[in-house]
Amino acid sequence: MARNDTIFERFLAPFVKTFLIDEDKLRRFHESIDWQAASTRLSDRTLTYPTYYSSQNFHGIEGGYLNVSAAVSYDPITQYALPPGEALVRQSLLDAIQSQPRRILDLGCGTGSTTLLLKQAFPEAEVIGLDLSPQMLVVAEHKAEQANLAIQWRHGNAEHTHFPDASFDLVTASLLFHETPPTVSQAILRECYRLLTVGGEVVILDGNQKVLRQTEWLTQIFEEPYIQAFASGSVDAWMGAAQFEAVQTHDRWLIHQVTRGVKPLPYKAVEFSLPTYAAAAGDRPWVSS
Ligand SMILES: C[S@@+](CC[C@H](N)C(=O)[O-])C[C@H]1O[C@@H](n2cnc3c(N)ncnc32)[C@H](O)[C@@H]1O
């Protein structure tokens, strides 16, 4: 028999009950968007999804991020998932930025919460948010329009963005690496290196790996398929392996961490040759005869 309950009843209502979310607001938002049209418009049809991404449920949602329920429920849930408060945690990424970037790329931007803050902090900069999920990008685009912020949204894979070399002076990723296998996080950092100009910064905000390693229950709450592998690694070491310098990780609010690195001048061995002087005696008065 065909089911006649809506996506809202089937998938979103359980979140509303569990997380004390304003059901009317969520329902109005869900119904205000033509999801099919908007996600088709934002989709790159040539993109092939990596298996680690399309084969997994994230946060217990079937189909992971490639569906409307994940996109609509993401912000209402995330506000409770980042103690001591979402704004403070996201601000810690902004506080780590030491330059005045003119071109900024936010990888795995999701619904664009950090991307919007970057544009607000650097209004003159060109800001691009990139994500594998068209549905998440639909929410991001909607939020940017509401906030009157000019941000470009790009459907793409952070491992291979197809932007030219050295086209950004800041690349960020918030809450992305605990959602990707460590080999993918490392590939993304190599891509960040390629994308940055010399002196450009990479800033990664995520769960505190040291703390997650010791608190297994924390890695189990949100049904994240790769979080334990993330916890056993080190973003700091991965950044070093990707050739970043001045790499530093700071703990933020105990359970989060921010890692920053800089793309150094390329190393090039240079042979210095000293000029040869005529050996006439008068040329070298310091040489005793
Ligand atoms: C937990 S959300 C974080 C979203 C956002 N950055 C934030 O701070 O709220 C992880 C996001 O990463 C995206 N993602 C995962 N793997 C990706 C990849 N290889 N390339 C681009 N986006 C990816 C997912 O679609 C999802 O939107």
UniProtKB/TrEMBL annotation:
In the record, biological process GO terms are: methylation
The alphabetical list of record keywords is:
Methyltransferase, Transferase
Q: Does the keyword Methyltransferase apply?
A: yes
Q: Please state every residue range assigned to the domain named Methyltransferase.
A: 104-200
Single annotated GO MF: methyltransferase activity
Signal peptide region: none
Q: Name one Pfam family in it.
A: Methyltransf_25
Extract the Gene3D superfamilies matched here: Vaccinia Virus protein VP39
Per the record, the domain of life is: Bacteria
What is the designated name of this protein?
Methyltransferase domain-containing protein
